[in-house]
Amino acid sequence: MHPNSAFRSEDRELLEALIDQVGFAMVFLTTPDGPRVAHTPIVSTGDGAIQFHLSRGNALTRHLDGANALAVVNGPDAYVSPRWYEKRDTVPTWDYVALELEGRVRKMEPEGLEALLHRLIERHEARLEGEAWRAAEASEETWRKLFTGIVGFELEILAWRPTLKLSQSKPDGVREAIAAGHEANGSPALAQLMRLVRP
């Protein structure tokens, strides 16, 4: 988390929207073998937890149940060029959005894992063009192999640590110039957030 308090947010609705829109996180844990990270799709339960699944062979899987872990959701990010400022006597920086979620992890029962998988499938299939793929199209054998190869987890969020570094320390005119620069250079989501999240 960035040390500048101007880059923090208590807007839970915005943070839940970030989890929903990104839908992917890195889960970190210090294991007996050293620090490890897993990359996984996530969903929010809406009541202070996230759910995810990992391969049984993942380096974190056997250590997560009962552990305190850190999940990080990365939102949009982009370089900020001094050329976008009226006064160019400054230095480059970076605008970004990140959310750290710390909490206790528990292993999910098979029923919970199955519900998580269906929720992930429905959510992400709905975002694609054309006719959605349905879980019923996979055979029982395919599902059996999947379930023997993965483990579901739920992380109860005990600490939300967001960073929304969106040039809030700059005057409005400069922020708009930076937002326009982001938009013109392939980062429209970041520009939109800059206009939405006011200092």
Automatic annotation (TrEMBL):
PANTHER family: PROTEASE SYNTHASE AND SPORULATION PROTEIN PAI 2 (PTHR35802:SF1). The lineage of its organism: Bacteria, Pseudomonadati, Pseudomonadota, Alphaproteobacteria, Sphingomonadales. This is FMN-binding negative transcriptional regulator. InterPro entries: Split_barrel_FMN-bd, TR_PAI2-type. It comes from Qipengyuania spongiae.
